[in-house]
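Box 3.1 A note on notation
Throughout this textbook, protein chains are presented in two layers. The first layer is the amino acid sequence; the second is a token string describing backbone geometry. Keep the layers aligned when reading.
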Amino acid sequence: MSDVPDRSPAVWRAIPWPLRYAAVSSACVLLVAATAYLALRLAAALAPLTLAVVAALLLTALLEPLVAVLDRLRVPRPLAALGGALALPGLLPGAGILMWQALAPQLADLPGQLERGWTRTRDWLVTGPLGISAERLDEVERQAAEYARDAVASPATFAPTVIEFLAAALLALVLVFFLLKDGPGIARWLVSQVPEGSRPRAAAAAREAWRTLGQYARGTVVIAAVDAVGIGIALVVIGVPFALPLALVTFLAAFVPIVGATVAGVLAALVALASNGPVDALLTLAAVIAVQQAEGNLLEPLIMGRSLRLHPAVVLVAVTAGTLSAGIAGALVAVPLTAVVYKAGSTLIGEARPPDQARGG
């Protein structure tokens, strides 16, 4: 028992301590939830700025090793940062032009292949064991077409969106340069704004958060490339056309964990069904599942590190929440944001514990 007298009101002392604990805990949870909600609303209201900042952080974490190599070569830090920042706009357009020249003839035929694949699938759904009525499928197609028409912006609203995107991309590029050039100084300044007694914990959490972000950004690029190469080789071996475009779709879809890979696998199976028939479609689906299982169980722990892995249920919830909140952009940033918050929060909690509890004692 503590010797400090209880000076709380008599009514509060009359409440059983489990209820008092639950009331205080609930109030803290509600306060944190309200703060998070307001922060998300502010981020949504400033969506172009938010996306520019998030993209700049991810690209900085991805390019930091390149700047470190230039530093070791005694390149001045501003020039090294400029080289890292200009690497993306210098490489991506050239790679995009070369890829478009190689893929354009095949991409023109891809919608037709997907349509033929859906026609075969529709016939199987109507005449196969499921026995779905054609009228029901017509209604589903009509609703999907209406949803697609509503989702596509009109020219009057599309132009401002393009301008906002270009402005956000330019802002992100400038932020990448400053973060690569002055990142350590910016981090020290941010930590210095925390009360002095909490600075060691804040610095440790910031280091873990940044390490997690960099590991995630670089690991995702490597895993997406491996997925694309593995599935592309499988499609070539099976004899599915459009192997290169489908491998590109797989690479891009891999940046949305679980959901993106599923969509890419379905597209590949539809193309195989339209061109080669159900046997090759099943082989394609089996190859996609095999590559993804090998990536998830063998490659991802090796590249990402086991400490960074999130449970698939957490990933699905995060991607769903991000999609509902901010569409495709939200789906892309949901998982790295969840991983960063988790690592920073666990570091703060671990640093706040007494030494014997932090060690598990």
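The radius of gyration is 26 Å. The chain has a mean pLDDT of 76.
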